[in-house]
Amino acid sequence: MAKNSDWLTPGEISKLEKMRFIQRRANWLLGRWTAKNALSAYLRNSRPVSSLSEIEIQSADDGAPEAFVGGASAPVTISISHSERVGFCAIGPEGISLGCDLEMIETRSGVFVQDYFTPEEQALVMEASPGRQPLLATLIWSAKESALKALRQGLKIDTRNVSAHFPANDSGENWCPLSVQHAESSRTFHGWWRMWGEFVQTIVADPQPRIPMPVDKSL
Ligand SMILES: CC(C)(COP(=O)(O)OP(=O)(O)OC[C@H]1O[C@@H](n2cnc3c(N)ncnc32)[C@H](O)[C@@H]1OP(=O)(O)O)[C@@H](O)C(=O)NCCC(=O)NCCS
User: Is there an atom of ligand 1 within 6 Å of 12 CB?
Assistant: First the structure.
């Protein structure tokens, strides 16, 4: 990520200056850097930009990211995640519901699983071999977070109200299918997950998205 701030808009610099916590500033910058690079590649044929400062990633009142290019709303839907100094951004057409999430694969305690997972999700983790439990628990958590972003609610919703479903034995070596149901709205988000180094990446959307492509191959 660039050290200077010439890739930020005046509005972004002003927002950054109001952030007091170093970690929050770092994550916010990482998300903006990731999203701007992804968006400039995604729009390179339809709306090429000569500088990342032409792109502004604003936060809506609910916290969801919204992209602007040259001061005008960009014809896209985006979602951002940052974890352990790694950024992740999903981009789709405007008007869809979209959420993405990146999580480090790690052991989640029994208390965590009981507090945040549905009974079916708890059983899936507990019945897996000990070696596979960290991956499954991380995947379920990430899929939920992606769906909570697609709903534009975040953790305002009880995480047990969204339930993740996927073939239990998929390896995650390549993109694998998943879905997340939100009981209250009867909505189902379809999407994809994969292992990426030490991380799990998930993307969900409504309507059902095609398999994710890196932005340099998406057009
Ligand atoms: C969405 C949420 C679950 C993500 O938490 P997380 O896993 O710790 O963080 P991630 O790195 O995966 O994702 C963070 C990004 O999610 C996005 N996001 C935040 N709230 C969102 C929402 N309601 N809907 C969709 N996306 C949202 C943002 O782009 C955020 O990054 P940014 O603030 O730097 O732009 C959490 O931020 C949350 O519950 N937020 C909603 C409630 C809230 O506090 N809103 C603040 C209003 S300003």
Answer: no
Query: How far does residue 115's CA lie from ligand 1's centre (Å)?
Result: 20
Structural domain contains residue 4: no
Based on the fold, state whether residues 208 and 107 are members of the same structural domain: yes
Q: In what order do the strands lie in the sheet with 65-69?
A: 55-59, 65-69, 72-73
CA dihedral (87, 90, 94, 95) in degrees, to 10, reads -100
Peptide bond into 207 cis (omega under 30): yes
Residue bearing the CA closest to ligand 1, atom 10: 81
Which atom in ligand 1 lies closest to the alpha carbon of residue 150?
25
Residue numbers of the chain with a pLDDT score lower than 50: 219
* pLDDT at residue 219 in the model: 47
User: pLDDT tens across 49-105, in order?
Assistant: 999 999 999 999 999 999 999 999 999 999 999 988 899 999 999 999 999 999 999
* Domain termination residue (choose one: 65, 99, 133): 99
Quick check: CB of 24 below 6 Å from ligand 1? no
The total of structural domains in the chain comes to: 2
Q: Is the CB of 87 under 6 A from ligand 1?
A: no
